[in-house]
Amino acid sequence: MTPAPRLRVLAAMSGGVDSAVAAARAAEAGHDVTGVHLALSANPQSFRTGARGCCTIEDSRDARRAADVIGIPFYIWDMAERFRAEVVDDFVAEYRAGRTPNPCLRCNEKIKFAALLDKALALGFDAVCTGHYATIVTGVDGRRELHRASDQAKDQSYVLGVLDERQLAHALFPLGDTLTTKDEIRAEAERRGLAVAAKPDSHDICFIADGDTRGFLANRLGTAEGDILDEDGNRVGSHDGATGFTVGQRKGLRIGRPAPDGRPRYVLDISPVNNTVTVGPAEALEIAELTAIRPRWCGTPPSGPGAYTAQLRAHGEEVPVTAEPVDGELRVRFERPVRGVAPGQAVVLYDGARVVGSGTIATTTRARAAAG
C-alpha cells in the first residue's frame, strides 16, 4: 500500500479538547503540522463564562500549551474584524430581517474555510485541520466527498454542509472516523499529556458568552413594543421586540389568556416590518415544502430532482425529501410534514452518509396550505 503523502497542515486550535486531539493525530500521522489559534474577539475576556464561548485569553493559552506538548509551532492570528463583519454582523442583520441564522455554518464557510484556508494556502500549507466530527471520502471519480462521521451521535457534518469542492480538497478531519465516546477522546487527550482533557466543551453561540441571545440582540437592535397576534389577526398579547423570537418558540410568549382550545401556542411568523409576532397551534408549524437560496454544493450539483434526506438543524433528525436546483435556488419537498422550520436556517441534503449540499431557507409552504 502506498503511504499517505506528508502534508503541510495548519491545525485550527480553539483551546478545546477536540481540536487539540485532532492536531495531535495529524502530527502523529506524519504530517508537518503548525497550530494556529484564531483571535475572533476584539476584546477577549480573560476567562470563559461557564462552558460557553471559545475566544478568551484562557482559550488561546490552552491552545498554546497543547501545541507545546504536541511539539508543533504555534501562532495566534487576529481575525476579529473579519469575524465581526462576516459572522456577528450577519447574525444581527438576519434577526433584524426576521430570520433565524446559524452562525456556526457561517463561521465555517467564511472564516475557517475561507479566510483561514486562503491564508494557509498563500503560505504554502496543503490543508486546514479542525476537530470537527466528519469524514472526507475520495469518490470513484477521484473527487473528495464530505460524509457523516463514523459515530453519528457526534456527527457535525451539518455545520460543514456549506463547504464546496475546493474547500473539501484542502480539509482534514482527523476525528471523523473515531468510533469512540467523548469520554474516550478525553482519555486520549490525557494519555497524550494535554491539559485540556477535562476542559468543558463550548456550546451555544461563541460570541454570546453569557448565552443571553435575546439580550444580545436587544442591545444591538433595540426594543420596541409590538403585538402578538393569532392566525386570524386578533391581538392576544404584546412583546418588547419581535427580533427576540424564533419560529417554533413556545416559552416566553407572555400571552395573558389561553387559546380557546386550551392548547399551547407557538410562534408561527415574525414580521419585523410591522413588529408583530403571530402565534398558533403546533400543527400550524407543519411545513410541506421550502425554497432555499445561496445553495452550496459539496461536489457536482444535482442536474434534476432526486430523492435525498434532509437535516434542518445541527442535531435534528433526517427526513426523506425530493429536492432539485431550480433557477439558482434549491426546492425541497418533504415526504411527510416537518415542524419548526424557520427562514434563515440551513437545510443540508444527504445521499446516504454523503453530504450533497446545503442552502439557506428563504420561504416555506405550510402543509395545510399545500393540502388546500
Average pLDDT metric: 89
Order of helices and strands: EHEHEHHEEEHEHHEEEEEEEEEEH
What global shape is seen? globular
- Summarize the main sheet: 6 strands, antiparallel, barrel
Strands of the largest sheet, in order across it? 12-15-14-13-16-17
Strand content: 25-35%
Number of strands: 17
| Span of the ends, CA to CA | 60 Å
Number of continuous helical runs: 8
| Radius of gyration from CA coordinates | 22 Å
Return residue spans where pLDDT drops below 50 for at least 5 consecutive residues.
Answer: none
Output the structural class.
alpha/beta
**Helix percent band:** 10-25%
Can you tag this structure with a few keywords?
single chain; 372 residues; alpha/beta; 5-stranded parallel β-sheet; 17 strands
Describe the structure.
The protein has 372 residues and is of the alpha/beta class. It has eight helices and 17 strands. A six-stranded antiparallel β-barrel has the order 12-15-14-13-16-17. The protein is globular and about 65 Å long. The relative contact order is 0.13.
